[in-house]
Specification:
Elements: E1 8-11, E2 18-21, E3 23-30, H1 33-39, E4 44-50, E5 53-56, E6 60-63, E7 68-72, E8 79-84, E9 92-96, E10 110-112, H2 134-141
Parallel strand pairs: 3-10
Antiparallel strand pairs: 1-2, 2-5, 3-4, 4-9, 6-7, 7-8, 8-9
């Protein structure tokens, strides 16, 4: 299956859950501690999805506060949503930018909740880079990924075990 150029698709790492958003709104980075813990990252990156449908499976939820629930894949743990329990139109949800098949189409345009911003985040690009030793390059070449590809598939996992 291929996605139309005007739709936005994505899903979890294992492929048990897939979604489609008809349109997207403003993409943001949230620095609050709750988003940091929910994503396991330095911040949460979300975009408003409108006309969201779950095309394969559906998320499990964790009620992270009395106002917010977080959707995730119960099979692989991929964070998928940030959802207000009240006040949003049906079919509108904040979707994790990294879960999109083409995350570059939904680049963040604002940052919010700066009081929780970790003090080193603005300096990450200044960190030195390391040339990988040959042993690490060989190790990476030996990895066989079980990750779902960045596009819709009719079934998952495919017959024969080919994951690409």
């Amino acid at each position: 299956m291929t996605q139309s150029s005007d739709a936005f698709s994505g899903g979890c790492q294992c492929g048990a859950i897939r979604f489609r958003a008809e349109t997207v709104g403003r993409a943001s980075i949230c620095h609050c501690r709750m988003c940091q813990k929910a994503t396991g990252g330095f911040f949460g990156a979300y975009v408003t999805g409108r006309g969201v449908t779950w095309t394969r499976g559906g998320p499990s939820y964790f009620l992270s506060s009395n106002k917010i629930r977080r959707g995730f894949c119960s099979a692989c743990g991929t964070p998928l949503t940030f959802e207000q329990l009240e006040g949003l139109p049906p079919g509108q949800v904040e979707l994790s930018i990294a879960a999109f098949d083409e995350p570059t189409r939904v680049a963040p345009v604002i940052q919010v909740n700066l009081e929780g911003k970790l003090n080193f985040v603005d300096h990450l690009a200044e960190l030195p880079t390391v040339v990988e030793p040959a042993a690490w390059t060989a190790f990476k070449a030996s990895i066989v990924s079980n990750q779902h590809p960045d596009h819709d598939t009719e079934t998952w996992p495919p017959a024969g075990g080919d994951t690409n």
